[in-house]
Amino acid sequence: MRYLLRLVVYLSLFFVTYSVCSVLLLRAVPVTVTPLKVLRFFENFTQDGFSVHSNWVPFDRINPSVVQAVIATEDNNFATHNGFDWEAINQALDENREGKRLRGGSTISQQTAKNVFCFPSRTWLRKGFEAYYTVLIECCWSKRRIMETYLNVIETGRNMYGVEAPAREVYGKSAKELNRYEASMIATVLPNPLRMRLQNPSNYMVRRAARVRTLMNMVGEVDLGR
After folding, report:
1. Strand 155-157 and strand 53-54: pairing?
2. What confidence score (pLDDT) does residue 98 get?
3. Is 210 inside a domain boundary?
4. Is the Cβ–Cβ distance between 74 and 109 less than 8 Å?
5. What phi, psi does 26 have (nearest 5°)?
6. Which domain holds residue 113?
7. HSE-up of residue 165 (Cα within 13 Å, Cβ side)
8. Does the keyword Transmembrane helix apply (predicted)?
9. Does pTM surpass 0.85?
């Protein structure tokens, strides 16, 4: 029993040390490999081979309209919350109980923690790791770094990750050159990037993107500091 307890303590110390060091390292190093990328690679390898479109770009090389669009659609209070938007979580729970369309209450910080550090699953264990890493990145990273990482690792289409990939592959330009319409379209596909295709937008996507642009006007200019 004593040996088992000691093993648990050692493993816990190892995990905490490893996780903190990983978060501190990725505060400055580009995130080029994520658990989701690895999973999708093996899922799609027989059809797509080594076709993966993912180009890390610094925050300054992403058009502010993209930042505005994802805040408008994914996390209105990103600049001010501490990683968790309890009001949005409670609202999502209420709507789900009332039988309305299921929605999540995850913030951009939570999504970043999930995408960078956790393998995709719907278990409570994964949710626990996501919450733990959310606290870590909120403590160790700036809001600007969290947003920069988010916009470089999110899935934006089949074998596409980050906003630079669809900018290049779909619109033939850099993320810095994206306009409001293109930014709103990218934000529109984020809830389901494998079903909603930027290459062939549906009428729903066009209508949704128009709504996103209205929300962007309400958000206004976004300042995440340095």
Report:
1. unpaired
2. 57
3. yes
4. no
5. -80, 0
6. 2-219
7. 21
8. yes
9. yes
The helix (H) or strand (E) run that includes residue 164 is helix 164-169
Beta carbons of 170 and 198 less than 8 angstroms apart: yes
223: left (phi over 0), alpha (psi -120 to 50) or beta: beta
Structural tokens at position 81: 């919350």
Residue 130 maps to a domain: yes
Rounded distance between C-alpha atoms, residue 133 and residue 130, angstroms: 5
Place of tokens 């029993």: 1
Beta carbons within 8 Å of 22's beta carbon, 6+ residues apart: 117
Tokens of 63: 């058009």
Q: Is residue 41 part of a domain?
A: yes
Q: Which residue has the tokens 């999708």?
A: 40
224 in a structural domain: no
What is the rounded distance in angstroms from the CA atom of residue 6 to the CA atom of residue 159? 43
What CATH number is attached to the domain comprising 18?
Answer: 1.10.3810.10
Q: For position 102, what pLDDT does the model report?
A: 44
Number of independent structural domains in the chain:
1
- Quote the DSSP letter at residue 78: T
d(CA 48, CA 43): 9
For residue 97, what pLDDT is reported?
60
List helix spans (H) across 26-123: 35-48, 64-74, 86-97, 108-117
Q: Which amino acid is at 211?
A: R
CB neighbour class for 19 (10 Å; exposed up to 12, middle 13-18, buried from 19): middle
pLDDT at 221: 86
Dist CA 218 CA 151 (whole Å): 21
